Amino acid sequence: MKRVKVSNNVIRRIPRYLRKLDELMEAGVTRISSFDLGQQLGLTPSQIRQDFSCFGEFGQQGYGYNVAALREQVAAILGMDRGFSAILIGVGNIGRALMDNFCFSEWGFHLLSAFEVNPALIGTELSGVLIRSMDELESFLAENKVDVAVLSVPKEAALRVTERLTKNGIRAIWNFTNVELTDPNSSILVENVHFSDSLLSLSYYISERKDEEAARAARAEKLAGAEK
Amino acid sequence: MKRVKVSNNVIRRIPRYLRKLDELMEAGVTRISSFDLGQQLGLTPSQIRQDFSCFGEFGQQGYGYNVAALREQVAAILGMDRGFSAILIGVGNIGRALMDNFCFSEWGFHLLSAFEVNPALIGTELSGVLIRSMDELESFLAENKVDVAVLSVPKEAALRVTERLTKNGIRAIWNFTNVELTDPNSSILVENVHFSDSLLSLSYYISERKDEEAARAARAEKLAGAEK
DNA sequence: TAGATTGTTAATCGATTAACAATC
DNA sequence: TAGATTGTTAATCGATTAACAATC
């Protein structure tokens, strides 16, 4: 796999390609051109070819791309075949939802264990994953290679837990707390799922649309008045 | 409020400004310069001033920005003061987690009601919000102005429910299903929270780092060999 | 072969950064 | 007043789009 320095914009598009390719495979589509793929994703064919060309040559002139083959390449680009391991910290509502519904293995991850402070949950299993006491965190990290910690603890505990994690070798965090963990001069990878940021962006777009519609209505009103 | 056409990049940064400003207020900071704000967010002062200048003049030469005042401006930009209303469809794990933990009102939204097919849940309340039968969806939408539908149904139901929503006047969806709802030529606003996209991006970054470290180790190895 | 479509180079467009006059 | 810092214009940088030779 070629691996030049690839821009964030490209990297954020790759998972969308994967999802679309899975969809195409399910629909029985075996080949697709950058033109058609672009149509379906709202991207230009140029951009799609540029994106893939960061990683190699996956198409064939005059034919396009084989869907199944491209899907495998995309999966490899994303590291889905590397068998990364994860632990989950905090089996609250979000933690439970992830353990219950989110299929880590579908995306190439092994969820090794979860950790909780609530004694009622410790020792129980959820979707086949054992919930351990937070007291065991350090010893577990010493004995297991863990690539990612999924952080789904309450806001107040976020920074404290993060410190314990990074002190014990964790170098990547999938952050579901609404706390800004990213320390600019740290080498820890943090991927945020900030619900509020997402909702507020939507709020912005709705406001924008409302304002535009109001402005349009005002212009129409004025015009109608002038005609009289 | 000035409202020129603002790029997506800017819009995605505004919620981060809000979060940081809230943090500063809580810490008792009353004024901040674009320089300091940039330091804390990993952005250049230029970019911060450019971003705000899309919406107005919120600072003061020689002084910087008043934190509380800027926070209010940012909130207004995002439409947090518009009292948008929302309903939630699908009280599964994710739906429940949102109703339980996510404070809609903190971000200016009123969660009016939730809808479910499971009879055991219908008629009950969660965090003060009534769970109605999906059968009541159409009549509810006819009687209430709803700005956003939060979609947290199982994957299989996503498209069907979306159609019911849009047929009954819903024009913005906050989508928690892993389904691509965005129809390029539709005017419905869709804001996606795709967990898998997020995890796969992280997977990419971890892979990249691993490859770099392996390459570095290989070079060191070679060097050590050459010295012998 | 002719038509289609790639991978890549060049051109364009847009976003970020730098610079600076205005001014608190 | 002098120092600080804004808002904005100009310069730079990077990402997207267009074009096209290569080739299946």
Folded structure, characterized:
With 228 residues, the first copy, chain A, is an alpha/beta fold. Chain A has helices spanning 8-26, 34-41, 45-53, 67-78, 93-101, 137-143, 158-167, 195-227, and strands spanning 31-32, 65-66, 84-89, 109-116, 125-126, 129-133, 148-151, 172-175, 189-192. The first copy, chain A, has a seven-stranded mixed sheet with strand order 5-6-4-3-7-8-9. The N and C termini of chain A lie far apart (70 Å). The first copy, chain A, has eight helices and nine strands. Chain A folds into three domains: 8-77, Winged helix-like DNA-binding domain superfamily/Winged helix DNA-binding domain (Arc Repressor Mutant, subunit A), CATH 1.10.10; 84-193, NAD(P)-binding Rossmann-like Domain (Rossmann fold), CATH 3.40.50; 197-228. The first copy, chain A, binds a DNA duplex (24 and 24 nucleotides) through helix 3.
List the SSEs and their pairings:
The structure is a homodimer of 228-residue chains.
Chain A: H1 8-26, E1 31-32, H2 34-41, H3 45-53, E2 65-66, H4 67-78, E3 84-89, H5 93-101, E4 109-116, E5 125-126, E6 129-133, H6 137-143, E7 148-151, H7 158-167, E8 172-175, E9 189-192, H8 195-227
Parallel strand pairs in A: 3-4, 3-7, 4-6, 7-8, 8-9
Antiparallel strand pairs in A: 1-2, 5-6
Chain A binds a DNA duplex (24 and 24 nucleotides) through helix 3.
